[in-house]
Amino acid sequence: MTTEEVKAKAAEPKEKVKKAAAKPSELSVDKATTEMIERSRELGVETIFDRAASMKPCNIGVQGTCCKNCSQGPCRLPLTKDVEQGGEDTRKGLCGATPETIAARNFARMVAAGAAAHSDHGRGVAETFLAAARKETHDYKITDTKKLLEIAPDYGVEITVQGKDGEVLQRDIDEIAVEVGEKALGQWGQQTGEVLMVKRAPKPLYDNWKKLGVIPRGIDREIVEIMHRTHMGVDQDYENIVAQCTRASLADGWAGSMMATDLQDVLFGCPYPLKSSANLGILKEDHVNIIIHGHEPLLSEMIVTAAELPEMIDYAKQKGAKGIQLGGICCTANEILIRHGVPLAGNYLQQELAIITGAVEAMVVDVQCIMENVANVAKCFHTKIITTNPRAKIASGETVHIEFDEHTAFDDAKKIVKTAIDNFPNRSREVMIPKYSSPLIAGFSYEAINYHLGGTFRGSYTPLNDNIINGRIRGVAGVVGCNNARTVHDDAHLTIVKELIKNDVIVLTTGCNAITCGKAGLLTPEAAGVYCGPGLAEVCETVGIPPVLHMGSCVDNSRILMAATEVVKAGGLGKTIADLPAAGSAPEWMSEKAISIGQYFVASGVYTVFGVTMPVSGSPVFEDYLYKKLEGIYGGMWDLEVDPIKHAQKMIAHINKKRQALGLDKSRERVLMDMAARQKLEAA
Known about the structure:
This protein is of the alpha/beta class. The chain folds into three domains: 99-268, Substrate Binding Domain Of Dnak, Chain:A, Domain 2 (Up-down Bundle); 280-426, Rossmann fold, CATH 3.40.50.2030; 446-681, Rossmann fold (3-Layer(aba) Sandwich), CATH 3.40.50. It is built from 28 helices and 18 strands. The longest helix has 35 residues, at 99-133. The termini are far apart.
């Protein structure tokens, strides 16, 4: 669209874009976002914020009691006041399905879709890993041999062999890698037995899963079984359906996602802390700007390498740019941040707004969380939307499809970067980049946390445990998840995290919450002195870490599970994850993946609070089962709290309850840290 066309469009009546009732400042707490919403309205470009104002959610769908699993329906069973007040519930679908059955089936199908999304991501990583190990591709190689040797025994792969003279020798790295890749890939199609990674869990947790019969047999099998069970006329016992939800979610968190994290670390390097920045202000008017958006790092790793080639930078200069600026959105952003320091352009609700800056030459997308409307927004600017995955094409607007193949990955990446560079001269003059970005430190894998707490020679989670025991740190919270256009963008994320760290709760974060915290300046050590209670601030100052630790993308929630397992192993805080003074939160969740993640955290023993809504309110019996009775089965349970302050306070109350159960609620004398105490905390 030319400058004149943009101006003409802006001058047209705005009937095409229904005017949202709310001011931009009422839609987001992020200033870069509000500026771009204002600009979108001036230009008459519709965004998700406009659609959220004009389209209200389905009242019955929100309750989770609408069934469309056969053509006799949809059968809609809205909650009545009589039932809500404790009266007899006589609601039934045409087949006789109760609200509990319908809500459980809908819940289970969300778990199945979410587990499929993350586990399919893992499958793609495993296939590429195996191709690299077999030398079938020259674009990928085994980078982190240390981590490979650490994880190989978990996959049942020997790392040593006995020599002729009886001495123990390390096996060839390539042989180990091939065997790990084969074992990993086999986890998807496995039909019997147990997925391998569940043995990483604390033994009491594993034993409980074994007793309950919920250990996954194979990843694909458990997802398929959910779809079978929730077909019309199959499983009609909500407790039995939830047991299958647990199997499938554990196949996600303790198998597909966990292996994705493992193998990505071996291929691309295990993350360790590095500096970067976040928000739309990272875009540069005089550079070719490429936004990488989605969730799989296989292609984005190649794009990072291609964009750094001298030949590409020279080509960009020939087109009139000073260089190439990469920026990420959603979890691809987190993947390339934690390994390369590529800055974060924004989170889920900012994807359309990045294009509206007028400065983005190309938005490269793969899978998950990509709005179809980005293609429509791009038509109003010069931006090219480049799809790269055969699973995820876009029918709306005009898109370019450059299919990624792990065997030609680097060539594919160079083609994408060149396409973006060629588009630079096509910009209109209406470039408006918000002047907001914040510094951050990210890359806290559980291995990095171990190192920070104890150094190379005595790395340990013991200093963390000691400071939880002595009360400087009240507990640990995992705060993760998406944005949701039904809430004020970023508000619940920030309110909850700030309330937690103010009360000496250290926060582990992934996904869009991590991006939100980065934009707000919470991912720096300096944030501790501003936002934290005295105990957590003291520990952060001594160790030199932020109070909010960025652990990666949403598939990297497995890192939080492993960190919790390491805390259990360090001792003094119980025998399993359910004993820990810890809680989980997804303040602004919106995707099916979040339900799968929530279920595997609950099944791992974590009290897990969601914001916004939960699609179970139409069935009080099923809701009670999730919110209360699951704790007696797994040690963890679900909860819902829309108010962010109350949300955080519920988490803190649970943490206090766990401290009391461990005998840590006694008042303790607070003393300034002496040199001996500091030496215990400081890295070697």
